[in-house]
Specification:
The chain has 273 residues and is α/β, with parallel strands linked by helices. The protein is built from seven helices and 17 strands.
Length: 273
């Protein structure tokens, strides 16, 4: 699923995957940047807490965004696929300048939202300039292909990752969250080795990739983003591997990007801050 078409005269909104564990109180640089992008004190944020099983998740984020000075922040407690067609939720999305998807379980998020009116609305709104951020599971669902699971570890292997369809807000990207904290390099390498069409983004906690309409991402936050660039991949042994075999990958590029560094998804060029 590719991103929704942008009509002539329109500009796509930012897509902002966050690695989870974003600071919300002491120095909420990621959330503050999101709020500023959405209009600052005129920002209207719609929160989708569907990935979480905790009823307090939505109200907690309402309080966080209120503390950051937004005009309004409203949680849409979408718990079933029927909820994802309710007119009042679609109206709340339509009036938002920013949409925020919380963490939790990305398969819960995809099975409830996938193909619904809410998911279609999010895609259309992003295509007309509404900014969409997601943390942890809310970040995982953003690409065309979502990592649904896989073991931790530093090395790729034949059974290292499970995919599911994502929301398709961005393509040419496979991403993983809580990256260094949960030692997920191996499963990101595995994911990229399946098809080197996409760059891999491993996003640490309290760190976000602010991906603009020009396909350039900027790193914001206290951690780093690991970029796996397979554009010069010479060999992958994935096709010949047996169950649990280690994988040979030759010619991969690896970039470690910290605050202010940028990476173009189209040209695969990385630049320092």
């Amino acid at each position: 699923m590719c991103p929704a078409k942008v009509d002539e005269g329109q500009q796509r909104g930012f897509v902002i995957p966050i690695g989870g564990g974003e600071e919300r109180i002491n120095d909420p640089v990621v959330l503050q940047r999101f709020v500023e992008l959405c209009g600052g004190d005129a920002a209207r944020i719609a929160i989708i807490p569907t990935a979480s099983m905790l009823e307090e998740t939505g109200p907690n984020y309402e309080a966080v965004f209120a503390e950051l000075g937004v005009e309004s922040a409203v949680s849409l407690p979408i718990r079933t696929r029927e909820d994802a067609a309710l007119p009042e939720y679609l109206e709340a999305l339509a009036s938002a300048t920013g949409i925020f998807m919380t963490g939790g379980n990305q398969l819960r998020l995809s099975t409830i939202l996938g193909g619904t009116a809410v998911a279609q609305s999010i895609r259309r709104l992003n295509a007309v300039g509404v900014h969409v951020a997601g943390t942890s599971a809310g970040a995982a669902i953003m690409p065309e292909h979502m990592i649904a699971g896989g073991p931790s570890g530093a090395l790729p292997n034949e059974q290292g990752v499970t995919f599911a369809p994502g929301m398709g807000l961005i393509n040419k990207v496979i991403l993983d969250q809580h990256f260094s904290q949960r030692n997920r390099l191996g499963r990101l390498l595995t994911a990229v080795s399946y098809n080197p069409f996409a760059s891999g983004l491993g996003i640490c906690e309290d760190t976000a990739a602010f991906i603009g309409p020009d396909d350039v991402l900027e790193v914001v936050g206290s951690g780093s983003i690991t970029v796996v660039d397979p554009s010069e991949l010479e060999h992958s042994s994935m096709a010949e591997a047996s169950s649990n075999d280690s994988i040979t990958l030759i010619g991969l590029k690896l970039h470690m990007l910290s605050r202010g560094a940028k990476y173009c998804l189209a040209t695969r060029q990385a630049t320092p801050a």
